[in-house]
């Protein structure tokens, strides 16, 4: 009897547990594919990547696409906000029900622009011919090499004129047409006339919203990030686009060539002859250790694999860091004793080879 | 039972109220013009926006002309606020009052510029757009004059040229064809109501966090 009761009891408990687990809310960390300790930047990166993959327009055959996309939006909205994230970590999704404002469309368009769901930035070809477009805006965004190495997000406030309906009508689609008027029986005259259609009146109102552009790791100079529909409006048509054009700034220590980084180190003559040990501080603060115990010739290069920039297409592949050495000779002249000493220590016979150094040797 | 129920409802509604008040939708409270931002500058006295285009002056220096236009939706009215060539202006940092900046025309890449040439309509100092790809010369630098410490977006400021001490101004003279109705923009030596400008539409860059410094655990 007791056993049967216990079984029933445990079954009930199990059922209750599952019900609670289901009702307790979604696992936002799992939806975004990030760990519980992910930084806000990691969360933004994950959202951006998944939003492009899971958008319902991209998955027309999947009946659950809209739900998955909505889940993604909710997950981002909670985890990207410090306070909401704290409440979620403590109380689960129940702890913040009713707090969902700012529709998913707002979040999505702050990363991709108003008509972001038109993927690839191309409007439908047919519409291009018929619908006039406002001007595009291209903004040069200067980024540091540190940002190219580690990635970053830049928030901007876009204040733009938006076409809103106003009372009354206005003339639109004005064109020249030939009109035939009858002057008399059998006599006609053809004149050119300006003919316009009537359209609803439009006025321009300034609106503001926040956009977010990602500086992806390994981004190259002149790459562009478009925000569809965030350009200048067109009274008779669609707004143009806002494009951020990346401009990578020069760095005082590192020079970029593709995914490789080049840098120069000046060492003393003594260090060049007897060896040395040093650390180079990299773009994200970690140090690259260099140790030499042999003679270092001027112009010598050291290749450090994996210490370059992350490749844009695959962040796991990195270029190399190439360190070139030049020698600083002693400033003071040697006296006769020191000169003898040097001759004795180095035991290098006189060379004095004369040749044309400019044609290669 | 009933008491606990009403208590829970009360708590939940308080929670709702708190959360609701926190998410009014993302209004931007960022009110400054920052380095690297793209703006349209409105002359507050004559209600025209600073504008340039691929049309050269027919007199004076013969350089690219700078005018004031009435329309609010022309992409040729966008200018980028940049620092001096020595690179002291960091992206996203608000421009301070008294700071020297370069104002670069977005579509043509030329800098707002003035020099000792006469303007065509009013015989004031000609203001042109000069340079290539954002690089011009020493006469491209202007000082932002405002009250307070930082250039705020809803504040009217003056631009005083470093080199000739002229203020960027509009006094209302209008051009004929091919730029019908556009106003002359020139430099004048006196500070008055004609040299006030306000940042209107644009793309305002907010300051970024430093990219994370992390140590590779994989190594």
Automatic annotation (TrEMBL), chain A:
Alphabetic keyword roster: Glycoprotein, Signal
Keyword Glycoprotein appears in the UniProt entry: yes
GO MF assignments: misfolded protein binding; unfolded protein binding
Domain named J: residues: 27-92
Gene Ontology biological process terms, A to Z: protein folding
A cellular component annotation (GO) from this entry: endoplasmic reticulum
Domain of life: Eukaryota
Entry function: As a co-chaperone for HSPA5 it is required for proper folding, trafficking or degradation of proteins. Binds directly to both unfolded proteins that are substrates for ERAD and nascent unfolded peptide chains, but dissociates from the HSPA5-unfolded protein complex before folding is completed. May help recruiting HSPA5 and other chaperones to the substrate. Stimulates HSPA5 ATPase activity. It is necessary for maturation and correct trafficking of PKD1.
Protein name from the UniProt record: DnaJ homolog subfamily B member 11
Top-level taxonomy: Eukaryota, Metazoa, Chordata, Craniata, Vertebrata
From TrEMBL, chain B:
Subcellular location field: Secreted
All residue ranges annotated as the MIR domain in the record: 30-84, 92-147, 148-202
PROSITE patterns cross-referenced by the UniProt entry: MIR
Pfam families: MIR
Top-level division of the source organism's lineage: Eukaryota
InterPro entries listed in its UniProt record: MIR_dom_sf, MIR_motif
Protein name (record): Stromal cell-derived factor 2-like 1
Gene source species: Oncorhynchus mykiss (Rainbow trout)
């Amino acid at each position: 009897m007791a056993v049967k009761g216990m079984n029933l009891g445990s079954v009930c408990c199990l059922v209750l547990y599952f019900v609670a687990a289901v009702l307790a809310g979604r696992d936002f960390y799992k939806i975004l594919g990030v760990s519980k300790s992910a930084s806000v930047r990691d969360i933004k990166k994950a959202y951006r990547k998944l939003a492009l993959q899971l958008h319902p327009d991209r998955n027309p055959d999947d009946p659950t696409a809209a739900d998955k996309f909505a889940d993604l939006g909710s997950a981002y909205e909670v985890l990207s906000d410090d306070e909401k994230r704290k409440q979620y970590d403590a109380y689960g999704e129940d702890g913040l029900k009713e707090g969902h404002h700012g529709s998913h469309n707002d979040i999505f368009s702050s990363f991709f622009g108003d008509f972001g769901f038109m993927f690839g930035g191309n409007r439908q070809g047919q519409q291009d011919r018929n619908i006039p477009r406002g001007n595009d805006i291209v903004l040069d965004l200067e980024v540091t090499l540190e940002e190219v190495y580690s990635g970053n997000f830049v928030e901007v406030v876009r204040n733009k004129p938006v076409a809103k309906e106003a009372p009354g009508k206005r003339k639109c689609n004005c064109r020249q047409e030939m009109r035939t008027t009858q002057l008399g029986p059998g006599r006609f005259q053809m004149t050119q006339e300006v003919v316009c259609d009537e359209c609803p009146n439009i006025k321009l109102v300034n609106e503001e919203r926040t956009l977010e552009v990602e500086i992806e790791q390994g981004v190259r100079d002149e790459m562009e990030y478009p925000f569809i529909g965030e350009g200048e409006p067109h009274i008779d048509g669609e707004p143009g686009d806002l494009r951020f054009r990346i401009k990578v700034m020069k760095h005082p220590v590192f020079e970029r060539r593709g995914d490789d980084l080049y840098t120069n180190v000046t060492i003393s003559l003594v260090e060049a002859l007897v060896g040395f040990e040093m650390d180079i501080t990299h773009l994200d603060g970690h140090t690259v250790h260099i140790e030499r115990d042999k003679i270092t010739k001027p112009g010598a290069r050291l290749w450090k694999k994996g210490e370059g920039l992350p490749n844009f297409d695959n962040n796991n592949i990195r270029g190399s860091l190439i360190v070139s050495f030049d020698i600083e000779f002693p400033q003071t002249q040697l006296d006769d004793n020191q000169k003898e000493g040097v001759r004795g220590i180095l035991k290098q016979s006189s060379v004095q080879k004369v040749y044309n150094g400019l044609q290669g040797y | 039972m009933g008491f606990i129920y009403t208590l829970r409802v009360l708590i939940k509604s308080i929670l709702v109220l708190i959360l609701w008040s926190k998410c009014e939708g993302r209004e931007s409270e960022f009110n400054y013009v920052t380095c690297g931002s793209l703006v349209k500058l409105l002359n507050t006295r004559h209600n025209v926006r600073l504008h340039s285009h691929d049309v050269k002056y027919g007199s004076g220096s013969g350089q690219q002309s700078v005018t004031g236009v009435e329309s609010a939706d022309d992409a040729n009215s966008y200018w980028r606020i940049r620092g001096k060539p020595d690179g002291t202006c960091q992206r996203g940092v608000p421009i301070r009052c008294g700071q020297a900046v370069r104002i670069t025309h977005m579509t043509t890449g030329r800098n707002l510029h003035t020099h000792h040439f006469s303007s065509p309509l009013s015989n004031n100092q000609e203001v042109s757009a000069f340079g290539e790809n954002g690089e011009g010369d020493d006469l491209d630098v202007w000082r932002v004059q405002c009250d307070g410490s930082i250039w705020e977006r809803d504040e009217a400021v003056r631009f005083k040229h470093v080199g000739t001490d002229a203020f960027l101004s509009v006094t209302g003279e209008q051009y004929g064809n091919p730029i019908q109705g556009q106003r002359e923009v020139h430099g004048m030596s006196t500070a008055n109501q004609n040299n006030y400008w306000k940042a209107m539409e644009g793309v305002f860059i907010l300051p970024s966090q430093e990219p994370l410094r992390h140590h590779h655990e994989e190594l």
